[in-house]
Amino acid sequence: MTTPASPGAARDRIHEQVRTLAAGGAAEIDTAEGPVRVVSLLTRPDWSDGETGPILLLRDPSEFLDYFPRLAAAASRTTARWWPGAVTVEVSGSAEGLARSLYGQTPESAARTRTRCPDDPAVAAVLELSPTPLVQVGGQATETLVRLDDDGRWEILVEGTMSQRDLAERQGETIVFVCTGNTCRSPLAEALLRHRLSQVEAPAVRVVSAGLSAGYGSAASPESVDLARRAGADLDAHRSQPLTEDLLDSADRVMCMTRGHRDAILRHRPDVRDRVTLLDAAGYDIPDPIGGEMADYEACRLAIDRGLDRLMADLGLAPEPDDPPPGRS
Predict the structure, then answer these.
(1) Which letter does DSSP use for residue 118 in this model?
(2) Above 60 in pLDDT, residue 75?
(3) Among the options 185, 262, 301, 306, which is catalytic?
(4) Phosphotyrosine protein phosphatase I domain spans which residues (predicted)?
(5) Both 155 and 199 in a single domain?
(6) Do 111 and 204 have their domain in common?
(7) pLDDT average, residue stretch 132-161
(8) Is 210 a domain residue?
(9) pLDDT at 328 over 60
(10) Among 98, 127, 162, where does a domain finish?
(11) Which domain holds residue 258?
């Protein structure tokens, strides 16, 4: 079994790879799926073979239109919902825009260009530090390969780790529930909404939860798991995650548990004001039950359910709920 490198050794390895790439060489990056070979875009790799040629690597989904400015905004929105992730996108024609200025010109023989925004942390770290754009020129690909039209329509060419259902779900409306640690309130809201959606004829809706002070990998609280199970939902596999810029950018609705959560997001990102609301439609906070009695968790679940009643109505999937009881705070 291979012994994982120490953080210092891994950092040194990344810097060594970046120096190699800047000097015009090739770097081999170890990923969870096997080694990936990358070179700088400035080495002008051969793009003429769309089947086995290089794959343009993006640091961030927002770079997509820098390389393909002719594409409609719908195409960029489509890829932003998949990336970072295990999806390689193929577009017709050669890379243009920023890529053309770097090449000098792009070969006319390039009938297709493939690009992806990797979520592997080792590749992402090299991309972040590289002074030039990078392309993948070797390595096993387990990503799903998707052909993307100029107007955002897509079809799977090769199904990999992301299925047709996974991709379609991400193209639907994305709802992100936000609390503090992503172990009690927001995962319970996520599980309860997923269960409700499974009971109706609903369009694809992506439901996610995150925390403003959350780390990665913590399980949901036992009380929240129990409450979800009683409602027919499942929280056993939940693992916490922080609210990232990418998640915030992909969200159509960001539903916060308290005014403090909402205000913290808007201080950092006032541009998303029209998408950030409280789950409680009346504007009340849903208090954190962590450390409390089971009765506190029950009260939290009831408050979440009232908010989900309104949300389901807003989605056109349920009748308008009755007015909330007065006097809550």
Answers:
(1) -
(2) yes
(3) 185
(4) 173-314
(5) no
(6) no
(7) 85
(8) yes
(9) no
(10) 162
(11) 172-314
Residue 90 has pLDDT above 50, yes or no: yes
Between 283 and 102, the higher pLDDT residue: 283
Statement to judge: residues 46 and 186 lie in one domain: no
Residue with tokens 């968790």: 297
Taking the C-alpha atoms of residue 296 and residue 289, their distance in angstroms, rounded to an integer, is 5
179 in active site: yes
The total number of structural domains in the chain stands at 2
Q: What is the CATH number of the domain that holds 131?
A: 3.90.870.10
Does 169 have pLDDT greater than 90?
no
Average pLDDT, the chain: 85
Residue 307's pLDDT is 96
Residue 288 catalytic? yes
Same domain assignment for residues 17 and 146: yes
Alpha helix (H) residue ranges in 177-293: 185-198, 222-230, 245-250, 259-268
Q: Which residues contact 93 (CB under 8 A, 6 or more apart)?
A: 110, 111, 112, 113
The token pair at 100 is 């053309």
Residue where a domain stops, chosen among 134, 162, 190: 162
Whole-number pLDDT of residue 299: 95
Give strand pairing partners of 136: 38, 55
Q: How far apart are CA 267 and CA 251, in angstroms?
A: 17
Q: Which of 288, 296, 305, 328 is catalytic?
A: 288
The active-site residue out of 81, 114, 170, 179 is: 179
Distance CA 243, CA 239 (A): 13
Residue 214 within any structural domain of the chain: yes
